[in-house]
UniProtKB/TrEMBL annotation:
Keywords: Cell membrane, Hydrolase, Membrane, Metal-binding, Metalloprotease, Protease, Transmembrane, Transmembrane helix, Zinc. The lineage of its organism: unclassified sequences, metagenomes, organismal metagenomes. InterPro entries: HtpX_protease (IPR050083), Peptidase_M48 (IPR001915). One of its GO terms (cellular component) is plasma membrane. It comes from human gut metagenome. This is Protease HtpX-like protein. GO terms for molecular function: metal ion binding; metalloendopeptidase activity. It holds the Pfam family Peptidase_M48.
Length: 105
């Protein structure tokens, strides 16, 4: 199932490589893995946002407050780390799909 446009643009060998790459994604269930990674990154970011608003608006005068380093790690570093992990997983899945092309062709 390819478009006429890509058939005109690519040679048969190139088209075979593209299809093998995409079918390797299907075989390896990359969509599921990417979805789980995105959900985890989103959950981490959401928790960081909740903690940020709690730290800003939820303070009371009778408590000592929050640890600034822990707050910094939660608000800034955790979402960045989650995004980097998500990108790393994506890069790994692409590498494995390319490797699948090498094996099939």
């Amino acid at each position: 199932a390819v478009t006429e446009g890509i058939q005109r643009l690519l040679t048969d060998e190139e088209l075979e490589g593209v299809l093998a790459h995409e079918l390797t994604h299907v075989k390896n269930r990359d969509t599921l893995i990417s979805t789980i990674a995105a959900m985890m990154a989103g959950a981490i970011s959401m928790i960081a946002n909740i903690l940020q608003f709690t730290a800003i608006f939820g303070r009371s005068d009778d408590r000592e407050g929050t640890n600034p380093l822990a707050l910094l790690g939660t608000i800034i570093i955790a979402p960045i780390a989650a995004g980097l992990i998500q990108m790393s997983i994506s890069r790994t899945r692409e590498f494995l799909a390319d490797e699948g092309v090498r094996i099939h062709i």
